[in-house]
Amino acid sequence: MAVEHSAAPPAGDRARIHDIGYRSYDGPRLGRAYARRSLYSQSLRGAYGLGRSVKSKVLPMLLFVVMCVPAAIMVAVAVATKAKDLPIAYTDNALIMQGVISLYVASQAPQSVSRDLRFKTVPLYFSRPIETADYVRAKYAALASAMFILTAAPLLVLYVGALLAKLDFADQTKGFAQGLVSVALLSLLFAGIGLVIAAVTPRRGFGIAAVIAVLTISYGAVSTLQAIADARNNTGAIPWIGLFSPVTLIDGVQTAFLGATSSAPGGVGPGTGEGIVYVLAVLGLIAAAYGLLLRRYKKVGL
Amino acid sequence: MIATESLSKRFPRVTALDRLSVDVEPGVTGLVGANGAGKSTLIKILLGLSPATEGRAEVLGLDVATKGAAIRERVGYMPEHDCLPPDVSATEFVVHMARMSGLPPTAARERTADTLRHVGLYEERYRPIGGYSTGMKQRVKLAQALVHDPQLVFLDEPTNGLDPVGRDEMLGLIRRIHTDFGISVLVTSHLLGELERTCDHVVVIDGGKLLRSSSTTDFTQTTTTLAIEVTDSDEHPDGTRAVRDALHARGVDTQDGTGLPGAGHVLLLTAQGEETYDLVRDVIADLGLGLVRMEQRRHHISEVFRDNDEQRDGQRKEAVGHGS
């Protein structure tokens, strides 16, 4: 079929071309690593609703505020009463706020991956230079970073407050560092669990419900069993039961290695030997989540 | 552009591609086949996303088995199905996809604005995609395939779900991708008719096997039929009849344009070459009539495949019988 070309403009000085037509692109093409970084930053921003509609900013921002306000209040109290220590340990904050953290991961993990699956955007990614592993790494890293921001921000508030209140610097810095390691592990673990569940539930609603269910039911069941074991004075079993829920796993790791006091019934945490099992379990779960995500995306490819 | 050599893809239960050898030149190439003929499987292999069971394939001179990422950097892909998130605007979405293709942020924004304008999306590009019509969504899908200025695009059923006007616009756009943008196109469809108007070359596959690969001029050149329509004058109250008689006198066979718009006023004749056009012009000028139109009526590719030589001969005899 013939295409109408407008006649070539006369080659005079007064000739002007208003429509510059198609311009080809000769600039740089930055390849896989750049694409992966772009996906990471887009997903990380998306986890706080940035670059998305106003509606989708509400929940993550609200949860972020809810995480930070109690820390700010505690700091205010500590400064005002000239306390010798903060009301809570750095490592306790995430456990106290676990409901908020669970809600965050339940809402943002499906947002991050279920949308691409549900609207079949995934093939558009894989028809570009990036590969399955790039996509999974970018998404995993983005959600884990978002969760780290969420869980580390209140710790930062506490730390800055503690320094303002002129509490012991070395003591506070050590506690802060231990807290950061703990929430980093927690972020990786929760993000992995959330993403795996979200990646198999393309419907966002189901994804949210499934993530909350897995996190709260497992914690509920484990706490109940631990309470029963405590009531029967079977304290040796408590640390082993704790291996079966993400929250108690993190609690166990920080009790054994990060100077925290266990929040398990009776305050019975794992010793160093059991603690190694805890660390291996956490790392194993993170690796398993990564592996499952890879397998899942190999299948949905194109 | 694309070369495959006895390319096969076997799944446990089906053979999707069966020793397919085909060469695709730069230009617009149609890939025709019924659903399940192996079109999508072929695109997947050409993008380096699925290994072939046997045989080899090259895209832009790069081996699909080893250079998949390099190929995907230089080609664009428009899937058949919906692939757009409803809650972002076309601009945001296409910018993101441009960056996924490796374009730096500034270039991604500039190319997005350019590309969306070229596919015909203007003010609406700032609104969320969820509110777009099917035609607009198809344009966004096309834009994301073109935004990184690829050398070749794979368009999988781009006219699916469009109304006739939208179909024509999309086909015109596809033609422009090659003529104006200089990008080669591989476009799939199960409708031969629409590819005839758009493509330089058509590859037909069925059951994973190559049925035919030839240029669209080959398909339609075998018989170039001219349709002519003339005015009447006082001297020749029935201009059509006068022309027919004059042409018959010069030994040119004509048929009535039965079944065509304006039947009764349209004459069909087989062009033997350049001289036929001159002859028609002279005959009409000598009679002092006005030539309303003279156009090539190309056969549709589907007719070529229908293997209906017999039938066509029968029609011609009938037409001649009416004429005399």
From TrEMBL, chain A:
Ranges annotated as spanning the membrane: 58-80, 140-164, 176-200, 206-228, 275-294
Keywords: Membrane, Transmembrane, Transmembrane helix
Source domain of life: Bacteria
Name the UniProt record assigns to this protein: ABC transporter permease
Organism of this sequence: Streptomyces kebangsaanensis
Automatic annotation (TrEMBL), chain B:
Keyword Zinc annotated: no
Positions of the UniProt region annotated as Disordered: 303-324
Keyword entries, A-Z: ATP-binding, Nucleotide-binding, Transport
GO MF annotations, alphabetized: ATP binding
ABC transporter domain residues: 2-232
Keyword RNA-binding: no
InterPro entries linked: AAA+_ATPase, ABC_transporter-like_ATP-bd, P-loop_NTPase
Family label: Belongs to the ABC transporter superfamily.
Stated name of the protein: ABC transporter ATP-binding protein
Organism: Streptomyces kebangsaanensis
